[in-house]
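tool_log.txt
---
The assistant was asked to compare two proteins side by side. It first ran the structure predictor on the initial sequence, then on the second. Raw inputs and outputs are pasted verbatim so the downstream comparison step can read them without reformatting.
(1)
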Amino acid sequence: MGKVNTVLGPVATEDLGIIAVHEHIGFGLPGCDLDTQWWKKPEEAFEVTIEKLRRFREHGGKTFVDCTGIGNGRDVEYFQVLSRRTGVHIISVTGFVAGDSALPYFREKSEDYLMDLFIHEITVGIDGTGAKAGAIKVGVSRGGKLSELDKRIYRAAARAALKTGVPIITHLCVDAETAIAIFDEEGLPLDRVLMGHADDGGYLNEDRDTLIAEHGGWVGFDTIGYDSEMEGAPYWSRPRQDRVEHFLRFLDKGFVDVALISADANCCALGWPGLKGHSVNYLFEEFLPDLRKAGVGEEVIEQLLVHNPTKFLTMQEPQDLKPSLGRTKQESR
């Protein structure tokens, strides 16, 4: 029997049910809480968030992975209240969405410091709450290439993942070759990594998706619902049917075993308007009907929503490996 850390304590993997593997209660850049243009009263934000989580539960959703990193609006005490009120398991993460959004305090810290920080939040708890992180967030800074700070964070995350057994979730999968090389050098098998946002309209590359999958990594189609047809769609949006066809091509290549889906939606966005009408529930109300219409069977849908994310999130036996013990590519698969 495996387990996963949630904000209310460890949960057995068989109790995770349907999982949204890359979502946000509320994401914003550092300082977003002071931006009065998009500020909402706490009562209003709570009401909106509760409604979306309860609808998620009505659709059969049981586990919600909040991928909001340190300094981006992560509020574990709030998550605990929401989880108790809705019955939804909420998994919080340690780490950073990317180096360029990390608070200045952390930008000059060493790999060992960052590793220890991540390990503390996974094994001891976050912000004195006792709630332990269930995954590590890393990401690519603006520009499409891993920065020096990004690389430090990736190495620290890989070492922390080995020592704690939790997986890594990336923001964007651009510069995948560099990321794969780092994880390889650190001895982290790529099946412990979700390379996210493969469906992001600004960074499409199907050869890259294939590369990640062939190395044993998880490929996230997890900006689902950012459709260019929607009013106010952000720059990373794309046509709805284009995304569906992209995903179907990925499945047709035989990669259903490493595919993960999510909406990357905010229950209540912080410091920006978000996308009106977009929530985690887009998965059930729009995307899954599109897949069924295209002939995708219920067994595949269950694999995408239950079996794949459960396998990915389940904590593994920790390994006390030193960086010098990196594996070869063949050994990492």
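(2)
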Amino acid sequence: MTEKPLRIVMVRHGESQWNHGKLFCGWYNCPLTKTGENEARQAGKALKEKGIEVDAAFSSLLLRANQTCDLILEELGVKEDVEVKRSWRLNERHYGDLTGQNKVVAVAKYGADQVKLWRRSYDVAPPPISQSNPYYTQIQQNKVFVDVPKEEFPTSESLKMTTDRSWPAIKSGKTVLLAAHGNLLRGLIKNIDNVSEEDIINLNLPTGIPFIYEFDKDMKPTKSLEFISDEKIVKTGLEKVKDQTTKTYVR
């Protein structure tokens, strides 16, 4: 009997309220918009149409990823059967003192090159979040983070720092759903596909569109970044992400 390949279905959470407002979100715990909920449901429907069955699910401690995960499992008809393992190590990167700032305004304030470096580079972190930041207390005292070790609670993170703390323990021979965040998934893709630090800057991921990785027994990818969606939908989703710091996206 041929052993099933390890398959990871990755999906960036659907549009959140702060995605819609073009705000740096990070560890701020905002929910999905109605559009984001619809994106998550559509992701579940797309997986169901492809006959993809999920054995286990992983998500972060953040609401937008949890909602996305639950809605996908609901569409697959397995919400009551699949255990979701949630970990702070799968949280979005901490955006430091950029948290809550509008991305377009940040470009005007700091310059496009600096903001791109903070957003997209591998090893450059934004300035640490200060106590004067309006969201400092909400993040530091959020009860969902009660089990995060104090010495590991970040005040700002680069993509490298986020990736180093993120890889979950996944059993072989399973199809795993990983509902998480754009930067966290970018970091995993960099490591899995050996993407260079220069090229990872230009990697964008659309919200709410699942993509698949498959691995051999040595955890080498045999299938990489295969989107489960119509090519036009993927292209539109990518353009939406690219426009975050340049203009208002019109639906």
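---
observation on (2): The first helix runs from residue 17 to 20. The chain has one domain: 6-245.
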